[in-house]
Write a structure and sequence with these properties.
- By secondary structure, the chain is of the alpha/beta class.
- Helices cover 43% and strands 18% of the residues.
- The strands form three sheets. Strands 1-3-2-4-5-6-12 form a seven-stranded mixed β-sheet, sandwiched between helices. The protein has a four-stranded parallel β-sheet with strand order 8-7-9-10, sandwiched between helices. It has a two-stranded antiparallel ribbon with strand order 11-13.
- Helix 5 links the parallel strand 4 and strand 5.
- The N terminus is likely disordered.
Length: 356
């Protein structure tokens, strides 16, 4: 009996230890990259450094990723300023919450890349209450005059018509130099499809309008086969191009894309059916905007025909200069080479054509 009791007690102790040491619940899955990358802190800065919060409409944008990397370089080289970055993930409500949270903390200036360009006044009204300087960038609001309701608000961006005009000039030059082969169905018209960034974005609207208008103003007859809002997204652009090719493969001469990401999506669709490779004569001309590294590589390989350079380093430098001045209580462009356009509140960064 004693032996049986001893065995039972030992068994009970082992069972108790096993239960006590074992996991009480299933381990949580690690956070995804998207979850861990909604906020980025810059390198530690010197004591007393001016803190600038940079709110992006989304990190997952190739051009804006380039701008962010350039800002990090500027930050690392300057101990007197400290940047932090937030990702609204394409949600204006989330960005509004980010603005509120930022303003409740210790911040000297804000740089805001709007999700919804119609929400500029909402953001201005929030920041105005705190009298913090505010610089919008890249995504121009529907009404630039809304900035004039707050004397500490400015804009850094491009002249939105310029990218469309330059893209149209690239297409014009391509058509005139290659008309015999570029006019694929021999109807004497430039038959095109257009990948649109979104109807809520002034730059997308201007690029779509002025690219085609520039070609038409040059006396070239055009025919629109299709237009699709692809929201700057490579995969959505590929899906649109897949559908157009299934219906009108023999008729499409040129692809206008509002950005390089969508241009690459179109190229991926073309390559999937044997077009736009170096070892094939089958080619549909594709033009984008941004001059990303992927686009430059595609142009060098002959699968893409041209793009318009949106200067990420120049954009970041202007943002940095204006934010640092304002955070230190100076006028935004004091001591710089920048000047305001006719609006009196906007600094414009010029585009440039990029082709092989």
């Amino acid at each position: 009996m004693k032996r049986l009791l001893t065995v039972g007690l030992v068994s009970a102790m082992i069972l108790s230890l096993a239960v006590g040491c074992g996991p009480k619940k299933e381990a949580e899955a690690p956070a995804t990259e998207a979850e861990t990358q909604t906020e980025e802190a810059a390198q530690p800065a010197a004591e007393g450094a001016k803190k600038v919060e940079v709110l992006f409409y989304q990190f997952n944008d190739t051009y804006l990723s380039m701008v962010r990397e350039e800002l990090k370089k500027l930050d690392e080289a300057d101990p007197e300023i400290e940047f932090s970055f937030q990702d609204a993930q394409g949600d204006q409500g989330k960005q509004n919450d980010e603005v509120d949270a930022t303003l409740s903390g210790n911040v000297d200036a804000l740089l805001v890349n709007l999700v919804d360009t119609g929400a500029a006044q909402v953001v201005i009204d929030k920041v105005k209450e705190t009298e913090k300087p505010l610089v919008f960038f890249n995504r121009e609001p529907d009404n630039i005059d809304s900035y004039k309701t707050y004397d500490k608000a400015r804009f850094v961006g491009t002249q939105i018509e310029e990218a469309g005009v330059m893209q149209g000039e690239l297409v014009k030059a391509y058509w005139e130099a290659n008309k015999e082969t570029a006019d694929r169905n021999k109807n004497g018209k430039l038959d095109y499809v257009l990948l649109h960034g979104g109807l809520d974005n002034a730059e997308a609207i201007a690029r779509s309008e002025y690219s085609v208008k520039t070609v038409m103003d040059a006396g070239i007859e055009v025919n629109k086969i299709g237009e699709q809002i692809a929201l700057w997204d490579t995969e959505k652009a590929k899906q649109a191009m897949d559908a157009w090719l299934a219906k009108d493969e023999a008729n499409i001469d040129v692809v206008f894309a509002n950005n390089d990401g969508m241009a690459i999506g179109a190229i991926n669709a073309l390559k999937a059916i044997g077009y736009n490779d170096a070892d094939t004569s089958k080619h549909v001309a594709v033009f984008g905007v941004d001059a990303t590294e992927e686009a430059k590589a595609a142009i060098a390989a002959g699968s893409m025909d041209g793009t318009v350079m949106q200067d990420a380093p120049a954009m970041a430098k202007a943002m940095y200069d204006l934010a640092k001045n304002a955070a230190n209580g100076k006028e935004f462009i004091e001591g710089t080479d920048y000047s305001y356009d006719a609006s009196g509140v906007a600094v414009r960064i010029p585009y440039a054509k990029y082709e092989q």
